[in-house]
Amino acid sequence: MGNPNWQRPAHNMRHETNMVVASPNSIRSEKILPIDLPVVDLRGERSMVKKLIVRACEEYGFFNVINHGVAGDTIAKMEEAAFEFFGKPLGQKKQVALYGCKNIGFNGDTGEVEYLLLSTATPPSIAHFNNISNVPSNFSSTVSAYTEGVRELACEILELMAEGLGVPDTWFFSRLIREVDSDSVLRLNHYPPILNKDCKDKDKSPSHNHTKVGFGEHSDPQILTILRSNDVGGLQISLQDGVWNPVAPDPSAFCVNVGDLLQVMTNGRFVSVRHRAVTNSHKSRMSVAYFGGPPLHACIVAPPVMVTSQRPSLYKPFTWAEYKKVTYSLRLGERRIDLFRNYTSQLE
């Protein structure tokens, strides 16, 4: 699982390998450098926990949390319901408006993934699945229980972050996702096992694990992401351009990562790190991601304590509605956060 105390990324990486990864558009050789993410035990001493979280967000943008307080039964039921849905015939699934397959967004991005995208404000009812046989009647309550659990976890983490950064209003970040009109979503991603057709069937050794990009390179636009996956690897983060860092799965932990809005609200102290998901050649990967988003009208700015004469505001104020519109107008891999940089203040 790892030690909650860690070294900087450059000293925490395992042996370097080269791996051929096929994207939807090309096949290329990439530098692959596995890492162990920081592990934060939420039952630890509070002053230490908040320091570890701040450090992880500054250096990695990602970390794992254990002893997170979300009931194991709630997590198990959510995964079971997800696998049951994705196990249905494709024709039935395609009749569900909440379902997507291969197409990601509206601008031509594709990947080897199928998904359900659910608003946390209006959990899915059985009416959404009229065209699918034998969908459990408790699907909506399962989603609601899981969402409530991870939302509370996200709020706890955001409040620890505020404390660790010295923000006097410790609800400054969490208040935005506690609002009844917060624009948070739950995304269920299923990555079927896919063996790259360019490799020979007999070549199944671990050192030749030919994979495809399931969900392409991007950063998360919201405030904070709480991710849970099964025991199949696939998440890769990029701490350095041109290098991909695979992250080993830990089903007992939640993986937490900084979103674009949190980078803005910490005036660049926390980093929204680019990441992707790749498929496994022989096993299905299931992930459930909670994206904590603010109300559409919320103005995204850093608290006064994060802005000083030595570190002026790096970003222009904007609303989540404005940023979300830009997000949907661009390709998945575009660096949209740069469009809101306050270049004037940086030149003064």
TrEMBL record:
It catalyses: gibberellin A1 + 2-oxoglutarate + O2 = gibberellin A8 + succinate + CO2. Pathway: Plant hormone biosynthesis; gibberellin biosynthesis; Hormone biosynthesis. One of its GO terms (biological process) is gibberellin metabolic process. GO terms for molecular function: gibberellin 2-beta-dioxygenase activity; metal ion binding. Keywords: Dioxygenase, Iron, Metal-binding, Oxidoreductase. Residues 181-294 form the Fe2OG dioxygenase domain. The keyword Protein transport does not apply. Its EC number is 1.14.11.13. Belongs to the iron/ascorbate-dependent oxidoreductase family. GA2OX subfamily. This is gibberellin 2beta-dioxygenase. It comes from Psophocarpus tetragonolobus.
